[in-house]
Every structure is written in C-alpha cells, then in structure tokens.
Hints:
Beta-Lactamase, five-stranded antiparallel beta sheet, 17 strands
Amino acid sequence: MNSTESILKQQKARSWLALRKKIQLYIGFAALWVTVSYLISVYVLHFSDIVTFFSCLNITLFMILSSLVLYSGLNEVFARHNKQIDKLKQSEETLLSVLNGSQLGFWDWHLTRNEVKRNATWAEMLGFHFKEINETTQQWSDFVHPQDREAACASIEAALKGITSEHQLMYRMKTKSGAYKWILDRARVVERDEYGNAVRMSGTHTDVDALKKTEQALQASEQRFRGIFENAAVGIAQVNSEGSFQLVNTTFCHITGYSHDELMYNIKYFQAITHPDDLGQDIHLFKQLMNGTLKQYELEKRYLCKDGSIAWVNLSVAALLDEQGSISSISSVQDITQQKSLQTELEYRAHIDFLTEIANRRYFIELAERELARTRRYQQSLALIMLDLDFFKRVNDEYGHKAGDKVLQMFSSILRNTFRAVDVIGRLGGEEFAVLLPQTDLDGAVELAQRLQENINCTDMRVERAVCLRITVSMGIAVLTEQDTTIEQLLNKADKRLYQAKTLGRNRIVALV
C-alpha cells in the first residue's frame, strides 16, 4: 500500500540520518586524534624516528578504530531497519486482513497531491463498482448530504489542524441510486511535514444505515413519549445517597403539598413522605441503585401529602455521578392519582353490577371458587341460596322498567342488611340472585333464608310517590357435599330447588329435594 511505502521511506531516511551523525562524530574524533598525536610528536618527543613510528602507529590505530566504528554503526542501522520493515509488513498484512474481513471502506487522502484513493468496499457501500469510483470526477463533498456537509468538513478540518486527535462523524452519503445512506466516517492524520502541516489522512467508512434508521425510529418514538410526558405535570427531585433532598421543583411540591423549604429543611428525606406499605420496596431498589447494581428503576408508589391525602405517583429514578465521584439520584415523578382512581373504579365496575352495587355473575363465581377452595382446605361447611323475585315481570309491565330497577335496588339493599359480612352476594342476571354462606350448614342457611323472607315481607317498596309494592321471593338452598367439586355444581343443585319452590307456588324456601 502507498501508506506503507511512505512509512518505509521515512524510516530509511531516519536511519541514514542517524548513520550520518555517527560518521560525523567519528571524523571529528579522528581529526582530533591526529592533531593531538602530531603535537605530541613535534613538541614533546623531538625524535624523528619516534615520530615516524608514532605516525605509523597512529594511522594503524585510526584504521582499526574507523573500521570498528563504521561496522558497528552500519550493522546497528541496518539491523534496526530490517526489523522495522518486518514489523511494517506484518502490520500491513494485519490491516489488510482486518479491512477485508470487517467490510470497512478505506480511503487515503494525500493533501499535497490532492489525490484520494479508496478500496472496493468503499465503492460497493454506495452501490458503485470499484472501477466507477476510480474513474469518477466527483469530489468527496459531492457525495455528502447537503445538510451534513458543513459538519463533516468542520470535523475533518479540526483533525487536519490538530485541534482534535481524529475525525469521527456519522453523516449521509449519496448512493448510485440517488438515495442517501448513513455512514460512520473515522480518520486520522497519518503524516505531517516538518512544519506540522497535514500531508496525508487515512480513514474508514462503516455502513451504519440500518443502525441509524433504527436509532431514528427509537428517537422518534422517544420524542413522542417525551412530548406527552413533558406536557404532563411532572415533578423532579434529586436526593443524595442517604435519601436527603438536594433539589425539588415546583410540580413536586404541588404533588406532595409541601413547600420547597419544608421539603428541603423540615422533611429532608424522601423516606419521611413515602407510604409505609411502599417504603420497603422503594428503599430496596434505591440501595441497589446507590451500590451500582441498578442503573435506574421505575416504581409506582404513594406519597403522604401534607393535607393527609395520598398521592399515587409513577417514579422513574436514575443514578447521577458528579465530578467528585459522589453518587446521587434524579427522580421523575408523575402524578397518577386520577389514573389510579379511574383504574380502581374500572376494576370495581368490572366486578360489581352497576344497578344493584353487588357482585356481578362473573365476580360472584370468582369469589365463590376462592371460598370453595378455602372450605375444602379447612374442611368446613358451605351453603348456597339461590333467589328469584316472584312475578317480577309484572312490575316491569305494569309500572315500567324504572320502577323495576328501583325494586331490584331496594331488594339488594335488603340482602346486604340481612346477610353477614363474610357472605358473598351476587346478581346472576335479571331478577335472579345468589348468596354463598361460608361455615354454614343446612340449618343455618334455612335460618338466614327465613330471616330474609321476614325482612322482605315487612318492607314496603315505594317505586313512585303513590305506588308502594310488596314483593315475595322464592329460594332454593344447597349444601356442599363431597361430590360437589365446583361452584357450578352447587349452583345447579340450588337452582333445581329454586325451580321446585316456584312450582310449589312461590314465596317459599326449598332446602331438600
């Protein structure tokens, strides 16, 4: 490669420069040697034959010394030079292997000759054949997206001037099809002249188009989320490793009901305003954040507000590390009290019959199955009463559905007042109801049914100002046996006895088949 040849030339030049310095040193030393020897011969010894001898000896020593010095210098220089050549060849082979295996586009820019060379991968990355790129008259800037061109030029210029150690930037480049592709461009100045000016710069292109587009999709999604999040009432609080408030914003104060000074100087710690039922989990996660086990965590928790109310919040916490190495946390606090109330209300409505405010059929079955499992586990008794309002259709036909709804509501109220808190009351549909009686045998169930019958008989149901109705109820009772494995089986048994009660004339209780 051209870059390797240039490096070898530079190394060779430096080696010969070192040799020249050694030779210069040697010549100076030899001249000094001859001069001193001559002065000693003339002014000290005064003998011509001795001078002759000394001169011969001097020449001999000079030749021996010069031979040794030259040999040593040349041997050292060329040995070092050969080692450097071997290392450079190995580096070149390694670089070629890496470039070929990593699908990197390589480019080499010689500034003084304004010459740019690229490899085949560089061309293929943009959809060109290698020959097309070699023969093109287009400049690098022609490929760069107009919106990215200024930033790319500035980054390269900074590296050329030595302001930065390298040029590294993601930008878009135009492909052969006319579309743009995201490229990661990384380069360094590999050669400078004696004045420090850049002579050559080499770099690589990495195809990051798929990665960048995925990143952009994620960023767009995050921006949408952030837009919604930032337009909501979001509190911010920073606390140190002990949980002491370092910073709170106005929205956080509004959420908790405390002023800035009260939180910072009176309350001081987030633990003091966290609901006791949520404190354990919050502290556990906070400790993991502080010791580095977690980088961030999210938590739904409750704050104890100044006015005694409870504020539900969605807490998003991340660790912060300052320049001194001290760790703290920054929390994003979103008030979700209304959402929680709505969620509770929706869950309630999913379980409770809207008209009568008692459990609907699905929720009744769910609660009954739990009670059945508990009864089996502790080997206790369990009874079930099915109820049906007698001739309820006549109420709707004669007085309208509004009057019928009032009758159902008043009947449900009687049920709640008659039965125990542990009993499970449900509306199965229309005018049909059921009551599950835990820890109750047949006699106990009959007694409760009779009490209900008495309460109904003595209750006037006023559906309009001038209309007061009396209703009756038919009831069927079933008791859990070893053969009953599901609530549906128990309901079927009670339903058969309810049907028998209606057949026998209504307004009665049937507990035995």
